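Q: I'm teaching a short session on how sequence maps to structure, and I want students to see two examples side by side rather than one. Could you give me a first protein with its sequence written out and its structure tokens following it? Keep the formatting plain so it prints cleanly on a handout.
A: Of course. Example one:
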Amino acid sequence: MTPVESVTQAEAWRNRLAALKDLPELWTLLWQAAPTPVAATIGLRVLGGLMPLGALYAAKNIFDLIALTARGQTIDLNSLWFWVAIEFALAAVSQVIGRAVDFFDTLVADRFSQSLGLKIMQHAATLDLQSLEDPDFNNRLERARAQSTDRVGMLTSAGWLLQRIVMLLSLGATILYYAPWVLLVLAISVLPAFLVESHFAFLGYSLAHRLTPVRRSLDYFLSLGSSREAAKEIKIFSLAPHLETKYVDLSTQLINQNTQLARRRLVWGALFALVAAAGYYGSYAFLVREAFLQRITIGTFTLLVGAVSGANGHLQMIFSLFSDVADQSLFLRDLMLFFRERPAIQSTAKACLPPRPIVSGFEFQDVCFQYPGAASPIFTGLSLHLQKGQRVALVGENGEGKTTLVKLMTRLYDPSSGRILLDGCDLKDFDVDELRKEIGVIFQDFIRYDFTARENIAAGDIAKLNDDAAIWEAARKSNAIELLENFPGRLEQMLGRRFEGGLDLSGGEWQRVALARAFLRDAQILILDEPTAALDPMAEYEVFQKFADLTQDRLSLFISHRFSTVRTADRIILLSQGRIAEDGTHESLMEAKGIYARLFELQASSYR
């Protein structure tokens, strides 16, 4: 027995009912997204739910009048045609209501999807980088993204559930008046099928939850196997068969488990559907007998048969829809848990603005830091002072914490222990957003936005999106100006191949555009984290020369593995084993003949 199958029915119901507690929160989101269409669709569904009883009552009177005529009695034809007109009017109104409901449901679905998608984007932007880098959280985030579209079906189900309940109540009241036990038989016969469907629906949710990592892997292999970026290596190394095999293996695993569950659901569902059918036809046979014995009129027989047929169908649908809504609520829980996630790094109520201008700079005091789930810490007692006006180069082997130091300076992470100060104040005392506005940073893994050239550069300070002079000046500082001048659309040129008319750039060209983002930002602190790796040595040298000119009165930090560039820094810090191993100018470090000197000589020897 699999872990999913080992869940008892009692546990399944407890989880299902617990998940229903999230429905009020969903209702709030729904009402905020589309109050008028929601009110309209509710009103129309209630009205539409009363139409079947009205039509059956009109039909009862029509058949009773016809039956009187068959027995030789004279009737008022106006009464007959009155009830025919009523039945026609009710049918016409039902048709209009049905189409109006579809119209408002479409409005609700569109506005809800838009609103929910926007809320997911907004909330994700507030969360810590630690959360977004956590695989378990990403599984939840993937399920939450799916809810922004998949829960639209749940809303439709909830609407139909309301309408079916109104129909059942109206028809059930009629049956209860003439034959109370018939309604009881119908409910009892449908209940087992409802419980079986509910059980397998819960197993389906549990299976889908457990297979989320598999689906993410499938999406990755599908994206990798059809992406332009990976195409060169896939062709050169003949990786396509290997990727196809992994895709088929994973998808087959998913299909087999879904098929196994669907097969069991089919067998048990069909068996208990027969029980429900027996209850309905038993009630039908009873009504035939009552009409044959003339205990009810032909009109009442027509009314009751229609009511029993409708109530049976509505009862089954109500159970099915309730089960569907309850089980989709289990998926809804993933969405609500996502919205309840709160960032650990946020501004306090008494947060203050960062200093402007910065006077003394950053100071790390006995800082220790370890990534969640990591086997060992990155920093152990790091103490460091980064002064304003210094051009500081950060060097060291891969994995020694160079990028981590930048993440700590920008409060993408907080230290595990110790403090980081800016002009003597703890970073935690500053408003997070305002602090980050004072820092211009370009990481090695910068984003290549499939935007226009204007938007790509303005990403560094989106408030300057329409400031052409500032954007061109930033492009000049990053040596991207010739690139932009040669674009057919200049600043309005679409970059990347995702959209029509887009131009793809080389790695070095993309880096020039990315560097322009940092230069656009009017920040007191400028940080370049290996952003020039795709540039040739001469181009990189030119970038860092301009970087040096532009940061004379600022706190500047750059990370590079090219020591020919690093040597131009005012100060070089070498990280090793979580601490500062060496600190000084190029000349002093070369004289010390330590790690830096050895690495410099190794790199220099490759050019001789």
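Q: Perfect. Now a second example for contrast.
A: Example two:
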Amino acid sequence: MKPKVMMMSAFVIFALLTWSKASKGIQELPPKKVQILVNQVAYNLKASKEAMVKSSMPLQNNVEFQIVEVKTGKQVFSGKVSRSEQVLDWSDHAWYSPINFAGLIQTGDFKIRLSVAGINYGSDSFKIGEAAIGKISIPAIVNFFYHQRANSEEEKEADKAIRLYGSEETVDLSGGWCDASGDVSKYFSHLAYTNFMLPQQIPMVTWSMANTAEKIAVLLEQIGSRKSLVQEGLYGADYLMRSLAKEGYFYMTVFSYFDKNPKARRVVGLLADSKTTGDYQCAYREGGGMAIAALARISQWKTHGEFSSEQYLAAAERAFAHLQQFSIQYADDHKDNIIDDYCALMAASELWKATGKLIYRNEARIRAKNLNLRLSATGYFIADDQNRPFWHAADAGLPVISLARYLDVETDANCRKVALLTIKTALDYNLKVTKEVNNPFGYPRQSFLYKNKVQNGFFIPHENESGWWWQGENARLGSLAAAAIVGGRLVYPGKAAYGVKAELSEFANHAVSWILGCNPYHMCMMYGFGQNNVPHMDSMYGHGTGKGGISNGITGKDGKGDGSGIDFKVVDGGNEWRWSEQWIPHTGWFLQAVTAMSTN
């Protein structure tokens, strides 16, 4: 026992000496305790660029870094590492020191080098280029969605005649995309029973593809992705068409029950713990609004899929008329909330733009005004008619995106003024709450209700209306990055990257870089890119993890009901899906973010 006691004593003495030297500005850090975290995929040439040094102790203020070309080893940039900070909510033994190299405006492949206590460290390689993130990621995203198509022979055959829950009646719901790398079900939305947490799934992905195809057509042609993206968007629109019931509502979910028998699939409404019901009619917030928006938008293209452009538009108008009458009836609590407002706003705006009809203009104005009235004095949106802040693990930026799309068609000066004020207030709040604590990564923070008290944090509360659903929030990051740029161009135009003021440009870059590897776990969430990826996940019918797809991401600490702390696990006894599973809203929102970043 004595040798062990002596060894422990020596370690304690070493630790105390190390702490003493560090407090005097002398660095004695073991080699494995320093790591350079970078965006492992790419930085856009004219945008802000940051990496991060993660260390077990604070670095000296005068630590220098160099950036070198990968091929030649030639130094092309140098500077000093910024002041070390801790995020005490995450860890009291990790320090983060930003490396800013926005001044490096040179294309190529590079690495960062620095020296601490006489020991040299190097980063993984990364690329810098004009619109580099979009040029690299968009072709991969299009291929990912092609991979996610529910088009195996088993699925195609079974989905041509899927039974409605509790009935012998069948419908043809072939097509669409599998929801996740571990779930081959197909959703317009889920979590309907929560009322406030519903994500937009297949309809949002379809709208995102339409948005990209229109906004950056020239770039898509340059990288050879325009035709394939248009085809994928039409594939999505055709599924929306087949999902429209003769009564005028959309079917919400094709659920697999995680059963290998494809004939076990049913059209259902979904509760917690995979319990199913016959409540499968979509309200505005349950995917109906975004499906209308996607169909109306794609109806204006000069091409079509299995259905004609005229059929896309007629279906959108029929569904809109139906939901104007029945959406509240379909909603679980039978009253509108903020999700209905922004989804109905998107539907009405796209139909107004496509047809010019006053009925859609009038509804768009009502919904836009509703969003303004939902702003709290603090600046965040209120989700209900009381005091619940709007926080969302996927679609946090959608209120701003829907208002921006509305402003693409609205010309009335007073209506525009109100909508612009709503966008400005929301973006101001996002910047304010993100900056109110030490936050070296610039991770977008949020306000939420936990145990009847409003509080702010990095990650969503694990105790929420769903009873079980919390996971990495990469879709939320993508949506907020898109909102910062798209909304920022309207209310904060500037000379920084993407045509907005510097704060918003940096906010968006931080969110995207976090997804691409500049995070405390140095994990690139876009599978098949970068140096560190989550493990591959297999699924039924040959599906599973796909190259170019985005994983769930980082969460608050497992076991923390308020979402505090930080966690990321690749193995967790079957629960690792919370972090490593790919989910189509993540990739759909990332597509919107890089689309916004790919043009001014």
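Q: What should students look for in example two?
A: Point them to this: The mean pLDDT is 94. Also worth mentioning: Residues 132-597 form a domain with the Glycosyltransferase fold (CATH 1.50.10.10).
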